Amino acid sequence: MDMSMELSLCETPAKRHCSADRGTDSLQHLLDSHLPSQQLYNEICSLQQRLASHAQQQTTNGESHMEQVPPTSTLPAFFESALSGRTHSETLLKPEDCVQRLIDLTKEEKEHSDASSPRLLTKEQRIRLGVVKSLLKGFKERQPHKWLDVISHLTKEYFPLEVMRELHVDDILPLQSFFDSALRDRGRCSQLTEEMVGLCCSEKDVPTCHKILSAVCSHLVKTGFPEKKPEDTLLRKVCVGILDGVTRGLLDSQVSDREVLLHTDLVGVNADVSHVCFKKFCTHTISLIMSHRSNMKVSEALKRQTEWKSGKVADNLKTLYKQLLVPFESSEVVELLRRILEKQEVNWQMLLSFLATFLVCFPSAATDIQDHVTRLMTDSLENADMENTIIAFLFARQSCVEGAHVFPTYPQWFQQVFGDGSQSPAGSKKAFTFLIKFLTDLVPFEPADVLKVHILRPPFIPAKCRDLWTDYTLLAKTRLADLKVPLEETNASIYSDQGNSSAQGAPGLQDVEKAIAGFESSGKLPTNVMEASIFRKPYFVGKFLPALLQPRHLPDVADSRMKFIEALKKAGKIPSSLVTKYEEACRKETRQLLEGVFEVEEDDGVEEMMMEPLEQLQHRLKQLADAVVSASTKARVAELVSVVSEKIEGVVGTSKDGAECSERECMVDLCQPDLISSHIQVVDEVLNSVCLILHSLKDASRQSWLHQLVRMLSQHYSLLPAFLVRLVALFRNQQRTLSAHHVKGAAAFMFHLGNNSSLFPLLFIRQHRSKGKLPITLLSCFLSSLLVGTAQQMTVAHQFLAAYLKVAFLCESEKSWASEQNMILPSQLIVMFCILSWRLIPETQPSLPITSQQQLWQHLTREMHSTKYETDGRGTEDAALALYASEKFQELLKTQRPTLEDWVDFELGVVPAQDCLSPLQRHTYQFSMMSHFCSAVSSGKLDPSQCKNVNTDLHQCCSVLMKKLAMALSRFQTESGRCPGCQQTAHSDITETRVNQEAASGLLSLLAKLVQNFPSTDDGNSSGRADTLWLVQQVFSLNAPSADSPPTCLPQALLRVVLCCPAYLLFTNSMSDGGNQTLVKDTVRFMEKFLVMHASEGGVLALDVICHLLQGYVTAAEQCSERSMMKGFEDHPLIVLSTLVHLSSVRVLVPSLFVNASSWNTLPPLLDVFDRFFQEGTLSVRQTSCDSFSLAAAVLAVIKHRGLMCDTERRKDMVRQLDHSQPKVVAILCELLLVSLSDAQSCCHHSPNGVKTSQLWLSEIWRQFPHLIPCAGDGRSEFASFRHSLLPADSLPFVEVAILRCMGQLAPETIAAEKGVVEMGVCLFSRLCQRFEDTHSSQQMKDVGVLLELSRTVVSLVRLAPLSLLQCVDGDTIKQCGLEMLAVYHQRMKART
């Protein structure tokens, strides 16, 4: 060929404009050259290739002039102009030659293509095909009457699908014509089927494959599944057979390994296929798939159902299922499955995996499946239809396996269907008998968890069927024993206590890690593991070994785990068969890792293959977020939730075995949580995703996705402790870093957790275990742990509660929580939000004027309804105010309004220095709130509008406030360790409100001011009793012993509260009321029953206590009409003794006591007399008007102050003078000294110097006057009544110890001869021995050292006593005093004879 005909690639742009004309001229030159037809054809093809190459180069250089270079599609225009009037045109357009050229083209394609790859044309072949098409088009236009001959020639041959599509598109050979003639040959049908499967699986030139298959499949579907009955049924069957072959080929070609083109997708998106045709095609294809290779037994299907969840179905197969489901409604799918199961054998794997995909794709699928299963179960059990019973159970169990976010768990479903006798399909004896027969047949194939469900959640048992059920349970328990699975969960850890095991995640994982660490450090098998393999074999075999032998890629060099497994194998602790299976599973894991076999989504398979498990979870959560934000269908969201569940399982290793989570226990230690790091990572990812999704959503009412997500998380029940600990930690420790969307996300998540609480395990907080095994809800635990002491803490907590209530109100229409409102909106939440609103938003305070409050609420309520709770755009405070004013919240307040107790508890936890209120604001707020509660207390919880004209009851409010303050102060002393008696019972509990000391002090001041406003009992407006002291009554009521005995520091807290109240309340209830003898008796009772026990030392009240009493006495005495009413108080030994001991301070602190002439004025001179007596040694009290007890009390007061300043001689002289002047005073002084010593024996806070002083003076008195010793031991003596007035009841037994100890200070020979001394000593010691053996005695009475010391004193007396006095001792009493004393006594008595 002449080279001048070629187009130069170096032409200038100006010359390119005439390229088309030159192409036409070149073609005409070829036609004029009279070349043979084949050579002419080849030259034309070469010319076309050069034109195409030239155009491609121009495009590469950025100079696109495609309009000037004719592509293949424009070639007929060249022929039209070039062939007109040419003589060679007939030769070139000869149809036989064109057909032959197509055949030659096909042969070339077959030679160049791989046998396993689809038959696609090369670039050069497509140019040749374009030339042939142009020739055929030219022939059709020039000789249309001969076109049927061309079609006849074409239909005799089989061309590749790409060639057939090109001929069809250019209207040369319609596919219909080709199928009518060519597809009646079975060989061609098989060839076409194989080629279509190859195109579907091709990885090369996917767009071309898509175009080819779309055209071919659409035509096959329209022909094979016409809307009306076809005339040519044979052709229809051929088309259906080809499509069936493609479907089978895809199912058999392991298409899950890579992305493929699915013929169902190509048909579904084609507009040429009508909805009716496509629906018929999908119906037929589903039926075909369900019956494909139907050779699986039911027993195998039962075991493998967990493998066919939607999240584990191969991605391409799942896509195929979803495309086939497109034209159907949910009910139609269920009906289709029913017909399929009635007419044909099925492949259970295909059927159940299809069911799982259907379940997550249709929102109403769960309901339709449940209804179908119930109907099927009822009919099959009543008619003893085994086949339908199997189908019903397989359907139900497969649905249950999918997860609680789409279908009830198996325990819930089994109990729901068979638990209620009125609705159970097995409610009759006949049906129940068949059910038990069916379940019995399944026992050898049932998973252990299913058997446990049947046993632990038994069905309704009709009359006379109990034996059948008993036989089944025995068989099921036997099977569990064979499987070495305990009926009750055995999760007790090897290395930790059982209570914490449920918080450790997958059973055995942590034990495995610790065991490997121990083996690595010591080189020996840990003792814990060896003991568990012997004594706890169910746990070792069922939990520890599966956790240890999880398949993994084994390293080339043996690591610690491999060495540990080998050591266990050599020790005979792992069966060889189990090791073999483990090694095979590890090799399979390695092969998968090398071959890249992963189940991933279509669009990100390669990317996800390279990710770590946690990264895969992050990736899937992001997909879920995108789907939710973009308002994807519910089916897509449910599908992604299932995939997220699988990814969580991959991270934490939890096993979703269908066991009932709500029957498990979950122990959480909030103070010292021991969580697995992978659990924390998963929890953080989930919470972050929830917060981001909610932040991105414009419509806050869209909560269904979160409901599904939380229900799915119930399968991973081991994550519950991590969720709780993480949320608590965020709101306690990281409040400053929390943004608004974090708070809202946590609130929404917490709501849905509470909404689905029945799916989660029972929650126990470790500190609460000692208080009784009572479960606590997650919301209640979280609310109890919220800190609300500072302004920032209050704000964050208020935002959380407002967001929670908003979500609750938005989801109120859901059936899921309508019946459990008290759990989802507990009183604790309503109360906390209300109190926080009162503090942070003054407009909500009930003390606001009723008219203003109602007007404000009406305005906000209207605005709330208009925005449907969409208050995000407004300020946080305004949003909370609108929520508080809403009708729904006000309706809740009618039954759950905060009580005074709730309010005081909250105020006690406030930190005043960091409060949101200034001191003045807080003072005003607390007074206004107390006025509100005083008005509402008569009905407990009143609406603010109902508090008008309600009689106040200040007494009851102050009683509540006093009780709360006393308990709070006692708890504060316990937590701070200030009470030694409470140190053993003190414990840290994060869920208990901390008491702030400053807040308690502020409320004490509030109480002190409130009680001053008590009305008089005389005017009838007071609820207090006129014959009882209100303050004394409160103390006795709070300090009364109960089953839940108060801590030992409670009396001290009560005493502090009493001392903060006005002093006159210990004598009268109101300033306007005068005292009377009845009230004074109450005061004396208070002193003897409470103050003596908790505020005195050796019969002497503490200084602040006696001053408080005397101040109250002075105030009350001024109101008394007769001074004699106060006589019982004035003459009480406790008051006289305490006043004299503290007289110097009392004269300063209570000067008004000595203003008027009274008996109190005689005390200072009396004390001065004895003070001079101690200094100068001369006593002169013969003319005093004081009674003997006052004199003795004055002596004791001086002894306490100056006792150690006297030497022995001075002490002797003073005792003689005192006895000479006032004999009774000495005897009373002995009693007072004994009281001081007895109290010192029972308490630890007495000073050693004080005890020593009292012992010295008492010993000196007894040394000079030994006849007083028997009187001291006789509790019925004249002056023994003083000890009952001055000592608490539990200190009275220590009088005997004090007596014997003081007797030990004396020489035994000097007192043994005194009448009654020996007899008294033996009697007292025998009582002490009895108390020592008494289990109810105090610990001080069980001091062996003290008992031995006193024993020596009494033995000395027995040994030295005259026989005449020793005979007076009772022999039985001696026997109770020990062997040593009995031996001495017998020795002395024998010596007498």
Task: Offer a quick outline of the entry.
With 1393 residues, the chain is mainly α. It is 64% helix and 1% strand.
Question: Roughly what percent helix?
Answer: 55-70%
Rg of Cα set: 50 Å
The biggest beta sheet reads:
2 strands, parallel
SS-derived structural category: mainly alpha
Strand content: under 5%
Overall residue-averaged pLDDT value: 76
- Gross morphology: elongated
Pfam family, one: FANCA_arcN
Protein name: Fanconi anemia group A protein
Organism: Littorina saxatilis
InterPro entries: FANCA, FANCA_arcN, FANCA_helical, Fanconi_A_N
What distinguishing features does this structure have?
two-stranded parallel sheet, 4 strands, elongated, Fanconi anemia group A protein, FANCA_helical, FANCA_arcN
Question: What do these coordinates show?
Answer:
Pfam families: FANCA_arcN (PF24783), FANCA_helical (PF24781), Fanconi_A_N (PF15865). This is Fanconi anemia group A protein. One of its GO terms (cellular component) is Fanconi anaemia nuclear complex. It comes from Littorina saxatilis. There is one protein chain. The chain is mainly alpha-helical and 1393 residues long. 64% of the residues lie in helices and 1% in strands. The strands form two sheets. The chain has a two-stranded parallel sheet. A two-stranded antiparallel sheet has the order 3-4. Helix 68 runs parallel beside helix 71.
